[in-house]
Amino acid sequence: MTVRSTVQRASRGTASVATVSPAGAGLRVTAYLIDLVVVLVSGGLWWYFTRAVVPAGIVAVEAWVGLTLARAALGVTPGGWATRTVANAAGTDHAPGLRAEGIRSVIFGALHLTAIGPLVTTALSREGQDWIDKVAGTAASDTRGEARASVARVVTPGASQRAATDSWSGFAPGQAAAAPVEPASVAPSLAPPSDARRAYETMPSIPTTPRLTSAQPMPMVQAPAPIVAAQMAPAPTVSTPAPIVPALPPVWIVLDSGMRAELVGVAVLGRAPAAQEGTGELEIAIPDPTRSLSRTHVRLGRDVAGVWVEDAFSGNGTSALLPDGRLVELVRGERTAVPLGTTLIMGERRLTLTGPA
Is the CATH code 2.60.200.20 the one for domain 252-354? Predict the structure, then answer.
């Protein structure tokens, strides 16, 4: 018997125990009626084609035994699949097993002699158990209430970088050179100079452009080129290079058969795994003649924090044997971080997560 272990959650650093929601009486009655229809249809079809009552009854009993074996090994029957309920051993999240489910099936089958006994017993169940479950040590759980995934919060080092730029402004264009101005001719005055005239005459002379005659060519004066903002070189911008993220070392999935596959992104494993549409998940089919694996049994992935594993609501569950010797039972539908060197136990198959050789 596998003991449910606490799983250390890397995202919060606290231990939590896997919990499931008990199936209500309405779901259990619906699942029972669906399974009963499967048994009656199996026997009815045999009687319809052969008109033999005894063989038809045997076929119905064989169908009931088949449902019992399915509940014992996988915890699921057609009725449970339709209502999304599973059978499990009381106090655990594992399938009931052949012994417990056999006891329950014998008592439950005997109640059919009363016609309505099974229906009444199932309708009176509380907290996922009726009186037969309490005798046999079984229970029923509602998988709709289970958490689908717990995503570990991964803090990526580095911060956003903002390039600093210096603002600049241009200069207004310069004014063109003014045209030469000819000095006005002053007629000589015979009057004595006044005080203002004396002050004017004592001022230093200002050089003027020589007057040109018609015989001399006028020189071409080129105005200085205006200083425009486009000629000013912009201030250099300071940029910080993006942080360099180191390449992650390779991680290998090594099956007990010796088959190896590199873990890149997310991989789904099982007897006939089905990746989620549009996710690009890698499908790895594992041969399993004993059918101890579910079709999609487990998911593996990696990120900057390391490797994580998630049980994909498998029938037999998944256990992780850590390098320090501890055996941890994984919570269905929840990602759990595991170190390299961990061995995953899935039914009768095993795989090991290893790093580069």
Answer: yes
Written as six digits, the tokens of 326 are 């501890």
Distances (CA, A) of 173 to 170, 233, 234: 9, 16, 18
Q: Which residues contact 163 (CB under 8 A, 6 or more apart)?
A: 237, 238, 239, 240
| pLDDT value for 236 | 66
pLDDT under 70: residue ranges of the chain:
1-20, 145-236, 238-239, 241-247, 357
Q: Report the distance separating Cα 324 and Cα 302, nearest Å.
A: 21
CATH 2.60.200.20 residue ranges for the chain: 252-354
Beta strands (DSSP E) in the chain are 7-8, 15-16, 21-22, 85-89, 138-142, 252-255, 260-262, 266-270, 282-285, 298-303, 306-311, 318-321, 327-329, 336-338, 343-346, 349-354
**Smallest Cα–Cα separation from 35: which of 24, 27, 47, 45?**
27
